[in-house]
Amino acid sequence: MSTIADNILQVGSRIQTAIQAAHRPENSVQLLAVSKTKPAAALREAYAAGLRDFGENYLQEALGKQLELADLPLIWHFIGPIQSNKTRAIAEHFDWVHSVDRLKIAQRLSEQRPAELPPLNI
């Protein structure tokens, strides 16, 4: 049975092969681990294997993991559909948002991002 670390190495190798085949710069592709439905312990194992970026679809699940893993310097990506009533929590707790589909959502995220945090990446 392969471990999370083994899987990360295999995926990393495939990414490097694809980068070379496409003649792209070495660091032009970044692995984002989609961690929805996975326990915090699995994310900890992935972190130990070198991953730093984690994508979540479900806000409530993500917030629980963020609390449990607050001791790790993780980069959190929101990749699920965005409901207007959840923009404040997303703006406050994520570093990246990949699923902005309306100008109204982008404006709300920008307005609700705490001033002490760096700008939200979209």
Automatic annotation (TrEMBL):
Ranges for domain Alanine racemase N-terminal: 22-120
Entry-linked PANTHER family: PROLINE SYNTHETASE CO-TRANSCRIBED BACTERIAL HOMOLOG PROTEIN, PYRIDOXAL PHOSPHATE HOMEOSTASIS PROTEIN
Keywords: Pyridoxal phosphate
Species of the source: Pseudomonas fluorescens
Name of this chain's protein: Pyridoxal phosphate homeostasis protein
Keyword Transmembrane helix: no
One example GO MF annotation: pyridoxal phosphate binding
InterPro entries per record: Ala_racemase_N, PLP-binding_barrel, PyrdxlP_homeostasis
The family this protein is said to belong to: Belongs to the pyridoxal phosphate-binding protein YggS/PROSC family.
Pfam families: Ala_racemase_N
Repeat listed as a keyword: no
